[in-house]
Amino acid sequence: MNLTTEELLKIVSDWKGSYKGSAYNIREDGQCAGRESSENIKIESKKDKPGLDIYVKPDTKDEVVYIPACVTHSDVDDLVYNDFFIGKGADVKIVAGCGVHTTDGHDARHNGIHRFFLEEDSKVLYEEKHIGTGTGGGKKVISPVTDADVGKNAVLTMETTQIGGVDYTDRQCRAKLADGGKLYIKEHILTEDDQVAKTSFEVDMDGYDCGVDLISRSVAKGHSNQNYHSILRGNNKCTGHSECDAILVDEGRVGAEPELIAQSADAALIHEAAIGKIAGEQILKLETLGLTEKEAEDTIISGFLK
Amino acid sequence: MLELKDIVWDADDGERIIDGVSFKVPDHKLVVITGPNGGGKTTIAKLIAGIVEPTSGEMYFNGDEITRDSITDRARKGISYSFQQPVRFKGITVREMMNLAAGRELSDHALCNLLGRVGLCMADYIDREISAKLSGGEIKRIEIASVLARRSSMMVFDEPEAGIDLWSFTQLVQVFETLKKEEHASLLIISHQERIIDIADEIIVVKDGKVAGQGTKEEILPTLMLQGYNDSCSVKKMRNVI
User: Fold this and answer.
1) Could you give the number of structural domains in chain B?
2) Is residue B207 part of a domain?
3) A258: nearest Cα among A217, A219, A218, A227
4) Do A284 and B51 touch (CB under 8 A)?
5) Least buried of B53, B59, B86, B150, by fewest C-beta within 10 Å?
6) Cβ contacts from A onto B, under 8 A
7) Would B223 be classed as within a structural domain?
8) What residue segments make up the domains of chain A, in order of their start?
């Protein structure tokens, strides 16, 4: 693997020279740069298209699987399909960061299409960090698609962060929840300059007593533009909560389009949205602690996106 | 020592809110500002913290003029300020706020002591966000703890009793006494509470933007009772409750 990949992996997927003891697959510029399965987690290449099938055995506990992808130069338009099959009663963490780097003025892109199949009583913590690096004006594009099928009493927790430097992203997440299934999503997005970020969530709460908690926090700086769209569909007795908070800095723009559809009288659905600049009183409070205005702003933004 | 000399503050519409206020907060003393609602007490506190800039007058701290100093400069010189209505922060935890206030990473032991002084158990709060998920009373106590964390030589508290339960309030009064006697801090507290007034070295009554009275508890309390403004009623009420 090249040095740029190593640097990107440090940022997006806890790389410390190895993923010792864990199952992993490192994707570099559309190719496999390293793979290892573990006794309980098997990683296989797809036969019909680029990508992986990742099988987690039933009752696997406390294991981590790393599936990072990096694009390290321009003119790469990487598209990958990864399917995760999580066995009954398993409890694992999946780290799937992505870094895109270009320096010669030409574009570079990575699109990951991830499908999750969680069997009954399984739990997954899915962490995904995205970053774009390099100079030269070439567009860094990362557009992930996530499809989740959350089985009976299964729990999927997704923590996704766009750290910065990504010029364009169109993030799509769709999920279906069975009886007692839970979906927790925390999304953090930073955009600057003329970057564009679109995020959309569509969750069907089909099962009895299932629930979703979706929290999106974003900061739009410069002339960047973000759009948030969520659809929570309550088709049974369920709870759905969607929260979109955004801070505007400079000339940033954020649009929020939350949609709640209750198709059962027992569906309890809530949406909250707050968009605005940093509250003046927050700056004042931190200044009374000895921070400068700039330090106060940076502290508020980094805390908000944490 | 903090000294205000003939401080005037006019609102944007020209209305005079603070009208020639002068007083001193000597080193290691506890001074209480009291008076009716809307009399200008919080504005005075904000003027001292630098949040509001005076229209005229002068302000000195330890001999240096600070009249035009920024909030940050005043904080760094040793003036800390506890907001009457604390600010909430999504994404900043109690631990992070205490570390910011202290200017260093505090140990769990130090955090436990700090939060314990305002009646909060560290384990229950330390990793929680200072957001709307905390009650008004909890946020208020965290606000006070953030000022204690600074260990400033001059601490300004704006109605620290607001929203705090009786048990925690009793503890808070002890904290103020300790700050003055053992930690040798200078304190300026805006309050209507007799138990805080009781421990003051000096009381300043502010009414209609002016200093309407100044002296010891023995000198001022009888006057307060006779003046008949709304807040003297709350002094009487608190005397009955506590």
Assistant:
1) 1
2) yes
3) A227
4) yes
5) B53
6) 56
7) yes
8) 3-280
